[in-house]
Amino acid sequence: MAEKLRLNKTNLDALKATDKRRMVWDNSIPGFGVRIMPSGVKTLFYQARFKGEVIRITLGSYNGLAATAEAARKRAAGIASEIANGIDPRPKRKEAEAATFGDMMTGYVDLLKAKGKKSARNVENHITADIERAQPKLWKKRAAEIDLDDCVKVVADVKERGALRQADKIRSYIRSAFTEAIKARGNVNAPAKLRNMNITMNPARDMVKVEGSSQARTRALSLAEFRAYWTHVKELPEPGRSLMMLHVLTGGQRIQQLSRITLDDIDGDTQTVTLLDFKGRRAEPRRHAIPLLPEATACIERITGAGEYVFSCDGGIRPVNGKYISERVDKIREAMGKAEELEGGHFTAGTIRATIETRLAAKPYRVSSDVLGQLLSHGLGGVQARHYQHHNFHDEKLEALQMLYRMVEGLPEPSASILPFDREATA
Fold this sequence. Notes:
Elements: E1 3-5, H1 9-14, E2 22-26, E3 32-36, E4 42-50, E5 53-61, H2 66-84, H3 91-98, H4 101-114, H5 120-133, H6 136-140, H7 148-159, H8 164-184, H9 192-195, H10 223-234, H11 240-249, H12 255-258, E6 266-267, E7 272-277, E8 286-291, H13 294-303, H14 322-338, H15 349-361, H16 369-376, H17 383-388, H18 394-409
Parallel strand pairs: 1-2
Antiparallel strand pairs: 2-3, 3-4, 4-5, 6-7, 7-8
């Protein structure tokens, strides 16, 4: 027969340890008990069956104080009430039950930051804009209740804006967040926000890639389109005008790299700016120096202020993100469409980078692939580049950027002057 008595200070003090573990139950609160170990340690707990599962919750050790016993009795009574109302009383389960979709997505960002991922800030900005602000109801919905239809709604709303590449990124973020939340259950190094969510399935696993999301990367503007784009850029109000000009005048560098530039990265003596390229699996970023044309320096002078960041629209306090640039590219594309200046249809901010490389490689510029690789910081992971190629390509990159400026301005390329050959002078 199970021992039963009222678990108050008097009776708890009277309970003695034996050579085996001893269990005593309260005679008025079913499930409330005390475990007495041979060492004499007394632990108060509550045990019951919840949805077919036997659960036990430790209420704390009894330390001989009446307050401890009474607090445990009140907690046990409260747990009994929660179970009667269908609420799982286990602390971690309650936390998991209350965890929202927003908690999971911010936990995913925290994980990226903990891993030192330089993309974390951009991911956070996209999640804030396209999920938290755009889908406030889903953001507050319990993560365990998010289904495939919810995931599709988030991605579809971004896609319907014409932001195909961005829509696919959001799809990837949601899918990865669920995957990391599932893995975090057994990972003590994962952020607590993810680890305690008790996510067991990934509703975004079967979401397919957004059609057309990668097509923009194969698109390059024609020379006429590129010059029209440049004209529209120069008509933008500040600071958008200088930011978009700087994007072109530095060779179409990746927005993530431009957003990291600070005033300390600019060398006034050599008129260069140094970018840190973290792309790929580099343990250390590649230092990527870009010559600054006078026109690019003028743009920087117009947009910098009291803050440290260069690529900024608030005087350097905060750097701009990809969304800021994409929105202005979208407006320019719409304006070009209305003006019948589009020959090849849709394009994105990434198209500008592809356009610069494509047009500089063609006649009359014919910039070599080696120089373009150095200018755009890609294709530089080979053995030769890592161990044997130490030329900094400054003059070649500067010449390519000067060609780029003449290209968008519609200026002719300087031709070499041919001196007549005087046969008599050499006789």
